[in-house]
Amino acid sequence: MYRKKQPSRMSRGGLGVTPETGRVAAGDVGARIVRIIGWILIVGWSIFSIFAFAWVVMTSLKSNHELFTNVWSLPKEPQWSNYVKVWTLSQLGTGFANSMLLVLSSVAVLVVVASPAAYVLARKPFKGSDALTNFFTFGMGIPSQLLLVPLFFLMFKMKLVDSLFGLAIVYVALSLPFTIFYLVGFFRTLPGELEEAAMIDGCTSFQAFSRIMLPLASPGVLTVSIFNFLFLWNDFLLALTFLSSNDKFTLSLGLFGLKGTMQYTGDWVGLFAGFTLIMLPILIVYLFLSNQMVEGLTAGATKG
Amino acid sequence: MGAYLSEGCMLKRNDKTFVIACLVPALVVYVVFFVFPALAALYVSLTDWSGFTPNLEFIGLRNFRELFADEHFWKVVIRNTLGIIFIGGAIIFALAFLFSAILSSGIKSKRLLRSIVFFPNIINPIGLAVMWSFIYEHDSGLLNNFLRAIGLGGLARTWAAPDRLFWSLLVALVWIYVGFFVVILMAGFDRIPNDVIESAKIEGANDVRIFFSIKVPMIWDVLTMAIVLWGIMALKEFAFLYSWGGGQAMPPEGAQNLAVYMYVMAFGTREPVYRMGYSTAMGVVMLIMVILMVLIVRSLMRRESVEY
Questions:
Q1: Which residues in chain A have Cβ-Cβ distances shorter than 8 Å to B239?
Q2: Rounded to whole angstroms, how far apart are CA atoms A172 and A232?
Q3: Which of A166, A176, A223, B75 lies most in the core, judged by the most C-beta atoms within 10 Å?
Q4: ipTM given for this complex
Q5: Please, which residues have CB within 8 angstroms of residue B52's CB and are 6 or more apart in sequence?
Q6: How many angstroms separate the CA atoms of B76 and B72, rounded?
Q7: Partner-chain residue, chosen from A132, A139, A240, that has the shortest CB–CB distance to B34
């Protein structure tokens, strides 16, 4: 935390370092200008973002006629029918249920499969365990586009195409490398004494894992679950490739379909209602957990 | 309680079963549904295959030769892909540096601003495409309307016009991803111990000097990783661009990058192409680009790490 000569509001509650006042070099003026420009830019940027999202939500309650009469006006009376229409007619309701079921079960299976493996790789060294860890994490560098075609036909042969169950398997498989990478790192940071004590007390390895180490690792498991939930909730490429019938569509596909038909119907407000439906659950969680989500999404990046 | 020794032996045997039981499910899923298709892709890229027939005709490197001879591939697909990676990347990192430097300097609204700037990263890209397509809409779109409202109607444009679409989309992509890199760089800056900065100040270094000579070198590892991460993210960018076409057989040229083009070649809907080998060859090109980016960034960024 470094502090320059700033308005007194800023220097309150500092670490007891009083800003020097004597020295004003030429560079300081430049630094201050850059700082002011950056400050204006970031505040403007934030205002734009909030405005854009708020505008979409607000407009989703207008009628198309109102929208095209004046894009800035508030809705005269909220058109809840926009939501009813996209929820039932455009089947976003089904999409919502499918997405929830698909993503929650994928994340659950992912945690069940990945955390024991990560625990063993991190805490039970055996011949080749490092190589195996690398083997798993290597997948992080493989673009999913590389395996799209062969995976599609593998699933096709197994009759798992156009099935939410099949897509869940794909989600779990493609999320494994990062999840294992992250959890191995997390298990390594845990202290070993408790585990040893448990083993000496006669716990089996499984008990030491499930009763002691897994609860200790729960913050890491939570972070990686949040990451995977967001990532899979917003997935489009895989859902588009592996699902084809309307009744199995996820929210992404439903909204994509709605956007496609929009060019014939001109129904922007319906489209905005669909957008609001897809954004709202994430926004609500974000209001409470924004720091965990921000750190969760960038976790692998900074703690690698 | 048995003898200590025998108990120890039992534990060891238990351990082996436990280790295997823990690893097998993850290994099976990973090998069958990830590693095997990835390896198969290397072979599929050397074949002519429509997908639904069992016969893959081996044609050597002909897919790659055709791809590299295709003018559309270079002039549109590769141009857009590299444009996003390099031009988009330069703008994103310049802004991310500026924002994270300001936000890490101990202002009060740090977390709030960070959350707002990051927000687009957690929103469904199809939703973002919906939003931006209305921002850029010609007649009643937000941007043109805003320009007219503040008396700059002369600047109103058809933002999604073919020759302008790529740049319009690039602006939107920058807006989406800046927050991600602001967070990463901030995590790096916040790690730097206070006393290093304080002592530099006492020595008389100004803010700019401190930033470039102390702060940036101290987050070099984070920066290297962030650049690699951006390269991979930018290369794989798909949903926002593909959905711009709204389900057309082929999205407009400005929205075609490698990821979009390879998808269309394999699974494109209205005029089925089903060129599985050709499409997978592009997947292999993407893999090679990832490897090249990692190697180049690593060698360009190699330097002695700063210990602290």
A1: 234, 236-237, 252
A2: 10
A3: A176
A4: 0.90
A5: B274
A6: 5
A7: A139
DSSP string, A30-75: HHHHHHHHHHHHHHHHHHHHHHHHHHHHHHTTS-HHHHHH-TTSPP
Calculate mean pLDDT across residues B277-281.
Answer: 94
Do A31 and B242 make contact, defined as CB atoms within 8 angstroms?
no
Among A244, A179, A200, A149, smallest CA distance to B265 is for A149
Chain A residues whose CB is inside 8 A of the B37 CB are 147, 150-151, 154
For the ranges A264-273, B89-98, B287-296, the lowest mean pLDDT is seen at A264-273
Task: Tell me if B219 sits within 8 A of B184, measured CB to CB.
Answer: no
Angle at B140 between CA B138 and CA B145, to 5 degrees: 95
Question: A90 near A256, Cβ under 8 Å?
Answer: no
Q: State whether residue A208 sits within 8 Å of chain B by CB.
A: no
Interface contact flag, B105 A116, Cβ < 8 Å = no
Q: Flag if B126 and A236 touch (Cβ within 8 Å).
A: yes
Cβ–Cβ of A236/B242 closer than 8 Å?
Answer: yes
Query: Does the distance separating the beta carbons of A169 and B29 come in below 8 Å?
Result: yes
Q: Could you tell me which CATH class the domain B72-301 is placed in?
A: mainly alpha
Give residues 115 to 154 of A whose Cβ lies within 8 Å of B: 116-117, 119-121, 124, 126, 132, 136, 139, 141-154
Q: Which of B23, B283, B286 shows the shortest C-beta gap to A120?
A: B23
Partners of B210 on chain A (C-beta within 8 Å) are: 2
User: Is the Cβ pair B35, A139 closer than 8 Å?
Assistant: yes
At residue A68 the predicted structure's pLDDT band, cuts being 50, 70 and 90, is confident
**Which residues in chain A are classed under CATH 1.10.3720.10?**
86-303
- Half-sphere exposure of B289 toward its Cβ, with a 13 Å CA cutoff? 23
Residue B247 is nearest to which of A121, A142, A256, comparing CB atoms?
A256
Class of the domain covering A86-303: mainly alpha
Q: What is the largest CA-CA distance in chain A?
A: 76
pTM of the model: 0.89
Alpha-carbon distance B112 to nearest alpha carbon in chain A (angstroms): 9
* Per-residue pLDDT tens digits for B48-87: 988 778 788 899 899 999 999 999 999 999 999 999 999 9
Which secondary-structure segment (H or E) carries B47?
A: strand B47-48
Pairing of strands B47-48, B57-58: antiparallel
Q: Are residues A90 and A155 in contact, defined by beta-carbon separation less than 8 angstroms?
A: no
User: Cβ A121–B23 below 8 Å, yes or no?
Assistant: yes
How much is the mean pLDDT over chain B?
88
CA A238 to chain centre: 16
The pLDDT value recorded for residue A195 is 83
